[in-house]
Design brief:
The complex is a heterodimer of chains A (272) and B (442). Chain A has 272 residues and is α/β, with parallel strands linked by helices. In chain A, 39% of the residues lie in helices and 24% in strands. In chain A, the strands form 2 sheets. Chain A has a 6-stranded mixed β-sheet with strand order 6-7-8-3-9-10, with helices on both faces. A 4-stranded antiparallel β-sheet of chain A has the order 2-1-4-5, covered by helices on one side. The chains are: A alpha/beta (272), B mainly alpha (442).
Chain lengths: 272, 442
């Protein structure tokens, strides 16, 4: 596996231990640019831990995480603090249990996501305080970007409502829109379909495929909803007890005996 | 209304529950007995030979318990009756809308009144001094509001920065002859420097832990001032601090004094009026800057930090810097207020910067409603002005204030003005109800 330039994220020998517990053990995989890569596995398989390592919330015990931009600029994520991973390497994420700024409006949520750009435009507050025109135009641009993404997730009419007052499915969509406002090269979605009804899940599929088709953002996805995973993923990595047990395109994963074994019970039927 | 319909349809639910209320009252009376038996029932006093003599006051004890019993009985009766039916919303949407329209007029009315105070009460020196005091606390409240209300960082040592500002002005003006207008920005810079210095070690702490460390920091600053005799004069304080001048023209009865230059009859009130407008201007600057900051990315990041720090980090916000700027900005305004305090008093000592001051400013912010500019004004007027009002009832004013604060926390737990106004909007500005907005916890 030599990282060609179409690889956006190269995970090598990632190990994460919490005391005696090995949450992720020697995991290696690649996510390719412009694709949707899914990480699946039973509960407690270590999927969210992998996400937390990629986005800098955990410092991996061992291993290397290399992110490559289209211009071949490379970032070693395991050496960067969390906020710089978003600010510099441009990896954005959502959370399993939605983390919106509940008391702020949908629009404000999307503007906070563009903080670094606006901060620079406001001359680190000093020019903005003085009402510098350059900041005004940058702010207008940010509002337009927010308006665009609100429209894309069907929440334009709710722009001035607090995020905490939105329905569950709307909050999930808003969180994805917020991550997209950070203009990431890699979007990490932690169970975006959790708690959605079948219709909403279908809409989510369409939306994620649209992101893949229309933007240069690649997607890394953790999901339990097999329908979502199988329909939209280009590549699937299967984890069980922190170990990779299978990897490949959906068709191959569907028939993999070890994957079916790991998913014994209700979810076996969903996989098959 | 649904409440009335319910009551008519099912009259039995509205019947008085006397038995339950009696039980409630009995429990309350028992608790009152436990509390009062030693506090009121027994009185120790020095006897004729210097010995302690115990007097019993069973009559008073019985009377107090009876008061508690009857009071609790009535309250329980009313509560039970109301609980039997579904209570309708207290205010209909129309009334609410009308109120919010009224609210918009409150701020300009307050401002107009504040501008006219020296004109209306020119001859009343006491009221002018009280106005200056209230405005000082309003300014401190607005400054602390940045840290507590916007960024959600609970700061119990705010008075430390006030002290830094006051001592900066006092020492710079006294030892080096710096003018007030030069010292004012310097005091702000020094205070915000201390804000950053405090900020660094406490960045990882949240909630109660942060509150404890800031409390300790406030005490450290005070103790340093008390003990560093050579520099600060220790407990004796600094006296003879230069009084303010009208842009270089002193307020005195000399040929080059303010009165002579402007061909007025000399009056000590000139200086008080000048001080009043000075603190009014400083407070308004604080308010204007805060309002402006809220609409800038840094202000939104502060509020986002209050709402969810982890989400902030996931969006590429440097939470360390964001917290430090909040601390520094809040401290800067305290520094301004401190140097004003020093020039107004002409004398400062560590006595003025005790924990009670921090607690008072925090109480103003919390009672006013965290993040609300107008709420701070109302709370400061009520707290500081009200405190003066009760000066004649020295013994009871703490009691009244304790009761008032408890009452506000029961009926308006989020403060007087608890709704949050969005910093930006696409079509329509809608206030955000308080129950969604996060409070200072981090």
């Amino acid at each position: 596996m030599n990282g060609g330039h179409d690889v956006i994220l190269d995970v090598q020998h990632l190990t994460m231990r919490f005391g005696g517990l090995v949450a992720v053990n020697d995991l290696s995989f690649e996510a390719r640019r412009g694709e949707i890569t899914a990480i699946i596995g039973p509960n407690g398989a270590g999927k969210t831990t992998v996400f937390n390592c990629i986005t800098g919330f955990y410092q991996p015990t061992e291993g290397m995480l290399e992110l490559a931009h289209a211009d071949r600029k490379k970032f070693l994520l395991e050496r960067m603090p969390d906020f710089k991973i978003t600010a510099r390497a441009r990896v954005a994420r959502t959370f399993q249990n939605i983390r919106l700024f509940a008391g702020m409006t949908a629009l404000e949520n999307l503007l906070v996501a563009q903080h670094n750009r606006l901060m620079k435009a406001s001359g680190f507050t000093f020019l903005g305080l003085a009402g510098w025109p350059g900041f005004r135009s940058a702010e207008r641009e940010s509002i337009d970007r927010a308006r665009y993404w609100l429209d894309r997730v069907g929440l334009l009419a709710r722009a001035d409502d607090p995020a905490g007052a939105l329905a569950y499915g709307q909050q999930r969509r808003l969180e994805i829109a917020r991550a997209m406002c950070a203009e990431p090269v890699l979007l990490c979605l932690d169970e975006p379909a959790a708690g959605l009804n079948p219709r909403e899940a279908l809409e989510l599929n369409k939306f994620l495929l649209a992101i893949r088709a229309e933007t240069s953002t690649s997607i890394l996805l953790i999901e339990h909803h097999m329908r979502v995973v199988m329909e939209i993923s280009d590549h699937i990595v299967v984890l069980d007890y922190g170990q990779k047990i299978a990897e490949g395109p959906p068709a191959q994963i569907r028939g993999d005996a070890r994957v079916i074994a790991a998913y014994l019970g209700v979810e076996t039927e969903e996989v098959a | 209304m649904t409440a009335n319909e319910n009551r008519e349809a099912n009259p039995r639910t509205a019947r008085l529950d006397v038995g339950g209320a009696l039980k409630d009252a009995a429990v309350a009376a028992a608790i009152a007995f436990g509390l009062f038996s030693l506090m009121l029932g027994l009185l120790t006093s020095a006897g004729p030979a210097g010995k302690l003599v115990v007097t019993t006051r069973f009559g008073l004890l019985a009377a107090m318990i009876a008061v508690v019993f009857i009071g609790r009985f009535l309250v329980a009766l009313v509560a039970r009756r109301r609980g039997a039916s579904v209570p309708g919303p207290l205010l209909t949407p129309q009334v609410r809308q009308g109120l919010s329209r009224l609210e918009r007029l409150v701020a300009p009315a307050f401002l107009l009144f504040a501008l006219l105070v020296p004109v209306l009460f020119y001859s009343n020196r006491y009221l002018l001094d009280l106005g200056i005091l209230v405005l000082t606390y309003i300014m401190l409240g607005w400054g602390l509001n940045i840290v507590v209300g916007l960024a959600g960082l609970l700061d119990l040592g705010y008075v430390a920065f006030y002290a830094v500002g006051a001592y900066s002005y006092a020492l710079l003006a006294k030892n080096f002859g710096f003018s007030f207008w030069l010292c004012l920005p310097l005091a702000g810079v020094l205070a915000s420097f201390w804000g950053i210095l405090l900020g660094f070690p406490v960045l990882r702490l949240r909630g109660d832990y942060l509150a404890i460390v800031t409390l300790a920091f406030g005490e450290i600053i005070r103790l340093v001032i008390v003990n560093w005799q050579d520099l600060t004069g220790g407990p004796n304080g600094v006296s003879g601090i230069p009084r303010p001048s009208f842009f270089g023209i002193p307020f005195n009865n000399e040929p080059d004094g303010f009165a002579a230059v402007f061909h007025l009859e000399f009056s000590a009130t000139h200086r008080v009026v000048f001080l009043y407008y000075l603190i009014l201007a400083l407070a308004l600057i604080t308010c204007a800057v805060t309002i402006r900051l809220r609409q800038l990315p840094i202000g939104r990041a502060w509020e986002a930090l209050r709402e969810d720090e982890i989400a902030c980090r996931a969006l590429g916000i440097n939470t360390t810097n964001t917290k430090l700027t909040a601390f520094a900005t809040g401290a800067m305004f305290a520094g301004f207020a401190g140097s004003f305090f020093a020039t107004r008093q002409g004398f400062i000592s560590p006595e003025s910067f005790v924990f009670m001051e921090s607690a008072l400013v925090l109480a103003i912010v919390v009672l006013g409603g965290m993040g609300s500019q107008l709420g701070v004004v109302i709370a400061a007027v009520v707290m500081v002005g009200g405190f003066e009002l009760f000066r004649n009832f020295e013994q009871f004013r703490m009691l009244v204030f304790g009761a008032a604060m408890t009452g506000i926390m029961v009926w308006r737990p989020r403060g007087l003005i608890a709704t949050r106004t969005p910093s930006i909007f696409l079509d329509q500005k809608k206030d955000i109800p308080a129950d969604i907005v996060e409070e200072a916890r981090q």
